[in-house]
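During the second half of the funding period, the structural biology subgroup turned its attention to how the target accommodates small molecules. The most pressing case was nicotinamide-adenine-dinucleotide, which had performed well in the primary screen but for which no bound structure existed. We therefore specified the complex as follows and requested a full 3D prediction, including the ligand pose.
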Amino acid sequence: MGESTDALIERAAESLACAEYAIALTGAGISTESGIADFRGPSGVWTKNPKAEQDAYKTYPRLVEDPKGWWEEMLSQPVSGREGFEKADANSGHYALAELERTGVLKWTLTQNIDALHEKAGCKNLLAYHGTISKLRCMSCNARYPRDSFDFEKLKSDDQLPPRCTHCQGVLKSDVVYFGEPIPSDVAYQSDDEARKCDVMLVCGTSAVVYPFASLPRIAGQGLRGRTAAATVIEVNAEPTPLTEEEVSDYIIQGKTGEILPAIAESVKAKLNV
Ligand code: NAD
């Protein structure tokens, strides 16, 4: 019989407490307990509606082809999806990671999520690999702008769409990375570097099938940049993933991130007397 969940939580806490450079990776699974559906879990948006996945691939080519028309279409659609994200609250999983950051154990959190819930939980060292709903990004120079700083209705009525970058006049789009769009080079570079540097990686709530993000645990598991051994890769997920099956992760703690991450954080704090 395998180790119990409690024993695995202790094992993870021990690794984190002794780590020199621990980082966390997160996916949509960490936000399901905040009421935001994931894509590929049992109740995921795409599990229920596979056509939505095909449609998602049309957005980016359409934007590149006709930025003005794309913005006009976006502004004429209901914003219910974004509002859902904006109203959601961080849950105990997000707070546990922010707490691990405050204690100095976790150096960075790299998230695929666009929902800004790690920020709401107080996480400071955050790389939003697929961008965030709260910002716009220049397609030429990657400069980011708060979404709230634009009056889209005025831009539309003044025939000033698409919005433009004040630095280089490039076209602005949502900071969210669309399917088929390259990962912004600044975020891609730093994420890759963090994966090479870390000695412990906590991978939470991701099916680990979306690339290039899914390559980060594989990089960490190879033992590069100034390390003699591979990083310890620990998964916290409701179900096994390709990382589990291909033994990229050392082990999986199977269950809800909202329950397991707080238990890990408590145990780490007890070990460090903080
Ligand atoms: P995914 O939907 O492919 O996989 C989610 C994984 O988390 C599944 O393995 C599921 O079983 C697991 N899971 C669900 N709830 C869990 C819980 N409470 N505790 C532990 N595990 C849980 O998600 P992904 O790997 O992040 O890839 C989806 C892509 O879609 C990402 O690129 C992301 O940007 C985007 N996305 C983001 C959000 C968000 O911002 N919250 C939501 C949906 C999709």
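Two results from this model are relevant to the next phase. The two ends are 34 Å apart (CA to CA). The CA atoms of residues 90 and 117 lie 5 Å apart.
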